[in-house]
Amino acid sequence: MNKFFTLLAAAGLAMSANATVLWEGEFVMDGSAEFNECFCEGTDWASKVAPALAKATDKSKLVFTYSEVSTDAENPGQIELVVKVGPSWTWTDLVAWKDIPGKAYTYTLDELTGDYTVLEVMQERGFIVKGKNATLAKVELLGEGEEGEGGGDTPVQPGENIALWEGEFVMDGSAEFNGCFCEGADWASKVAPALAKATDKSSLIFTYANVSSDPANPGQIELVVKVGPSWTWTDVVNWENISGTTYTYKLDELAGDYTVLEVMQERGFIVKGKNATLVKVELALDGATKPVDPVEGSVLWEGETVMGAWAGILEYKNIPENTQWKAALMSRIDAGDKLLFHYTDVSTDPEAPGQIQLAAFTPDAAWAWTELVKYDNITGNTYTYDITGDPYGDFTDVEMLSERGFAVKGQNATLVKVELIKKGAGVENVTVDNTIDFDAPVEIYTIEGRRVMEMTPGHIYILRQGNKVTKLAR
After folding, report:
1. Is residue 143 classed exposed, middle or buried when 0-12, 13-18 and 19+ CB atoms within 10 A define those classes?
2. For 124, phi and psi rounded to 5 degrees?
3. The whole model's pTM is what?
4. Share of the chain above pLDDT 70, in %
5. Which terminal Cβ of the chain has fewer Cβ within 10 Å, N or C?
């Protein structure tokens, strides 16, 4: 592989303000043995595709847009993306039959394939795309920060959110609905195109400020659609409590004889509430329900608490005195997430090992101490608590942790940091080992589990080297 060619290409002129269309047409993806489109040796390869790829960087993206995509759970629309690698041009999957979210699939050119980067292989040899239960309509190459021909209607990669509305609306429970996403000025230009990309794996995320935690007057949400020929007013969320500062609604339910997704895509939705102030509404595609705020990262607390012999205690509580409380992170806790506790000076004496006790507080007036972990040994320098969503008395660990926080005690160890690890991080049971040798080969993954070539400032990464795994914020 010509590395010099790759370096020259990466240093080339920046692409135009809009995406480069590599192909446009109509091709029914039927899953047949023959690959249905080829972007490596056809008539447009030399004149269009190769010159466009030569300008790409590892931050560029391929966007595959479809006109028809099956949402049948048994026969979903899917994509396979292939390159040919190495001296023997080995047939290599980059995307192995993944579901197409909405009407587009986005692939970022920042991965490795064998001993080469995807960017190197594509610049020299192009790529091949196959699929099933979908009709391909367009393939675009997007540079960093570029948009497709649809401008703000650029296809969104799974895991990213589309902001439908931001502002400040006090939810006072009045008869008039306080926010409308079906006929306002943004319906045709923003909300309807975003909902058109949604699937039954997508979610709406409502973010709030000033949510009342008073059990007698809690912050609540009502979510309404209009169903059928008579546009019948239909509750899909009937005055449910808002946990923390967000409420997530998955678009996988029925509303009478229709699916919620069908109704919302045609008619939108209406949201009402009380004892809370709505500040943002987002559409999370393909199941990305509670993303970690990239500005705050995942560190909840840092300091030094000497646990001694059950004498030291860290109370990480949602109270004004706790200046380290990360509302944007804690409110998004969900089943499948993890709390990661970092220690120093952990005793390995079997007679007096380093141990942890973890408790949460009930989200009611009592703030009752509820034990989640009782006197468990700390292995190495970290302890991981898996958040399950299971009930502990009248409340689940998700409800208690997200609304009220936790307390941690222990013995024979010093607590120095607590992190929240979102589900889907791609590395299970993360054990931190700070002996990663950056002069030797190391695998780098994003917090979502996608492998990348290098780290950039402002992001969190999982590093793997042999049997050592560590988490690092740049």
Report:
1. buried
2. -90, -35
3. 0.36
4. 78
5. C
Contact 208, 247 (CB under 8 A): yes
Determine the pLDDT at residue 203.
Answer: 86
Rounded to whole angstroms, the Cα distance separating 46 from 333 reads 49
Q: Which residue has the tokens 């060619």?
A: 5
Helix (H) or strand (E) holding 2: none
* CA atoms of 185 and 188, how far apart (whole Å): 7
What gap in Å lies between CA 99 and CA 97, rounded to an integer? 7
Label residues 210-230 b or e (16+ Cβ within 10 Å = b): ebbbeeeebbbbbbbbbbeee
DSSP, collapsed to helix, strand or coil, labels residue 153 as helix
Q: pLDDT tens across 93-137, in order?
A: 888 888 888 788 888 887 777 677 888 889 888 899 988 888 888
**Are the CB atoms for 318 and 332 separated by under 8 Å?**
no
Query: How many other C-beta atoms lie within 10 A of the C-beta of residue 459?
Result: 14
Q: With b meaning 16 or more CB within 10 Å and e meaning fewer, what string describes 276-288?
A: bbbbbbbbbbbbb
User: How many residues comprise the chain?
Assistant: 474
Report the amino acid identity of residue 314: L
Distance, CA of 177 to CA of 396 (rounded, Å): 31
**Residue 405: exposure state from Cβ atoms within 10 A (0-12, 13-18, ≥19):** buried
Q: State the pLDDT at residue 420.
A: 86
Strands (E), 72-160: 78-85, 90-99, 104-108, 112-113, 116-117, 127-142
- Specify the residue for token string 């390995």: 348
φ, ψ dihedrals at 401, nearest 5°: -65, -45
Residues 6+ apart with CB under 8 A from 273: 171, 173, 178, 208, 219, 220, 221, 222, 242
Among 49-63, 144-158, 432-446, name the one with the lowest average pLDDT.
144-158
Which one is predicted more confidently, 400 or 191?
400
Max CA distance (Å), the chain = 74
Note whether 292 and 420 are within 8 A (CB): yes
The DSSP-derived string for 344-369 is ES----TTS--EEEEEEE-SSTT--E
* End-to-end alpha carbon distance in the chain: 31
pLDDT tens for 249-285 read: 888 777 767 788 888 988 889 999 899 888 889 888 7
